[in-house]
Amino acid sequence: MLLINCPWCGPRDECEFSYGGEAHIKRPEDPDKLSDAEWADYLFMRTNPKGRFPERWVHTHGCNRWFNAVRDTVTHDISATYGMGEDGPEGQL
Amino acid sequence: MSRSRYSIFSLARNAYSHHRNWPKAWRSPEPKSAYDVIIVGGGGHGLATAYYLAKEHGLTNVAVLEKGWIGGGNTGRNTTIIRSNYLWDESAAIYEKSLQLYEGLSRELNYNLMVSQRGVLNLAHNQHDLHELSRRVSANRLHGIDSEILSPFQLKEMVPILNVSPDVRFPVLGASLQRRGGVARHDAVAWGFARAADARGVHIIQNCEVKGFCREEGRVTGVETTKGIIKAPKVGVVVAGHAGVVAEMAGLRLPIESHPLQALVSEPLKPLLHTVIMSGSVHVYVSQSDKGELILGAGIDAYNSYAQRGSIRIIEDMIAAAVELFPIFSRLRMMRQWGGIVDICPDASPIISKTPIDGLYFNCGWGTGGFKATPGSGWAFAHTIAQDRPHAINEAFGLDRFITGALIDEHGAAAVSH
Fold first, then answer.
1. In angstroms, rounded to a whole number, what is the distance separating the alpha carbons of residues A64 and A67?
2. Which residues from B are below 8 Å from A76, CB to CB?
3. Nearest CB to B256; choose among A18, A48, A74
4. Residue A91's pLDDT is what?
5. Out of B242, B245, B255, whose CB is closest to A46?
6. Structural contact between residues B385 and B53, judged by C-beta atoms closer than 8 angstroms
7. Counting Cβ atoms within 10 Å, is residue B245 exposed (0-12), middle (13-18) or buried (19+)?
8. Cross-chain Cβ contact A74/B256 below 8 Å
9. Are B189 and B376 spatial neighbours (Cβ–Cβ below 8 Å)?
10. Can you tell me the distance from the alpha carbon of B187 to that of B280, in angstroms, rounded to the nearest whole number?
11. Nearest CA of chain A to the CA of B254: how many Å?
12. I need a surface site. Which of A14, A70, B309, B388 has the fewest CB within 10 A?
């Protein structure tokens, strides 16, 4: 079971949260000009690393706010949580 | 290497020498410097691919590279269920091909896969479930796949220990039944394919991890491994949960996320469940092994992970569902729990495809339901590699479907919630 540090509520049990997948995927700024392949990359293609992974969570049964976390996909160790739109510890934004 | 066929006579003969003189089922050669085809991943799918490359396409200069031991990943971690009751034409074709191959495979491989067509039931717990199941049963029958709907009364008659009373939180309103579905011995599938592929000349190389790809003018010409560089003009990758990791070595992006999927085994019991029961809504699937243990499968953890374990809350949910469906299980003790890493595609359908890189082929995205597809997947992937184009049966499962938008949504038939 993960203990997740919500940036607003503090450390809470994993079952209070819902998962939002990979973080820092930017919505295309000019969608009309995108090719099908570029759309596919935005919609479906994912980085799926074995190791540190910036991802999104939402505190569904708490403050109901979204935030980002950097979690290791092997050890499940969460090294940072930070607000949406903020720069991650590795400068992902 | 001469190899005796397995039979009642070889069993009797070896009994006289106290089973000390059985020959090795497959060799363990050192890798050659080059092959015609390299298969990365020695699970059921990879070994099946190598077998069908040799059998159907005459390609015997083939190596299967496995970073651990064969069948030690998802092949040895699943709940051994086989069935073909999928919704869409494309899926029905490949899963049915696979089930048909399973039906003759023990004889073909001369290896007892313990295929037991004991029927697979999918339960409905609300009107929507019932409509979905009816739709799927109708679609199956149009494809010539056996499938029928059972009422709660018929269900109770078939499985007396199932609780079909209307006063539970998620009452059972009916079920679909595929009588040709059932279970097979998962390790035997890997070992049987390995033995048969080896007999046709395929090299099975264990403890050999792929670390990167050799490239010349864009195309893949081999792999860098922990046992050195091995060349081949064609490399097929079928590594399930680690598809994304290997794809990254080739600079390829896949529409795949890796998640843990768990299963449990109980203490052995007297025979009490003669069929397979799955419920996508309350989320549990259960069957009883020949040793008497109940094998229960759970759902996936929501988050990406490569740790081969899952979280306790998933097990809690699954056990709660199992006990509501089968009150008789309430004092059952569980012996083992484990997790495997499954590669989930957005449409819950696999990718068996050429890639934008010449000489590189990928077979992945089987997610929570790869075991049942093992022979069919290997058969189609072997064709794709040998002929350098997909067979009609896996044409729709290309990587390009995410660009064209022709997705094959099987979230209903996949039966494991993601």
1. 10
2. 305, 307
3. A48
4. 63
5. B255
6. yes
7. middle
8. no
9. no
10. 26
11. 5
12. B388
Q: Are B6 and B110 in contact (CB under 8 A)?
A: yes
Distance CA B397, CA B350 (A): 6
Contact residues for B300 (Cβ-Cβ < 8 A; gap 6+): B259, B260, B261, B310, B314, B342, B344, B368, B416, B417, B418
Interior CA angle at B113 toward B20 and B344, to 5°? 125
Put simply, the answer to whether A1 touches B313 (Cβ < 8 Å) is yes
A3 touches chain B (CB under 8 A): no
pLDDT at residue B1, as a whole number: 42
| Contact: A48, B304; criterion CB under 8 Å | yes
**CB B277, CB B286: distance < 8 Å:** yes
Question: In sequence order, what are the beta bridge partners of A6?
Answer: A10
Q: Find the mean pLDDT for residues A41-57.
A: 95
Q: pLDDT value at position B415? A: 65
pLDDT of residue B310: 87
* Model pLDDT, residue B2: 47
Average pLDDT, chain A: 93
- Yes or no, beta carbons of B304 and A44 under 8 Å apart: no
Q: Which parts of chain B sit beneath pLDDT 50?
A: 1-2
pLDDT of residue A1: 82
Q: Chain B contacts of A39, Cβ < 8 Å? A: 403
Q: A19 vs chain B: nearest CA distance in angstroms?
A: 6
* Cβ–Cβ gap B245/A48 under 8 Å: yes
Q: Which residues contact A83 (CB under 8 A, 6 or more apart)?
A: A7, A67, A68
Inter-residue contact B178 to B145 (CB < 8 Å): yes
Chain A residues in contact with B313 by the CB 8 A cut-off are: 1, 14-15
Phi, psi of B376 (to 5 degrees): -65, -40
ipTM: 0.94
**Residue A92: predicted pLDDT:** 57
If 0-12 CB within 10 Å is exposed, 13-18 middle and 19+ buried, where does residue B130 land? middle
Question: Rounded to an integer, what distance in angstroms lies between the CA atom of residue B154 and that of residue B29?
Answer: 54
| CA separation for the pair B127, B112 (Å, rounded) | 41
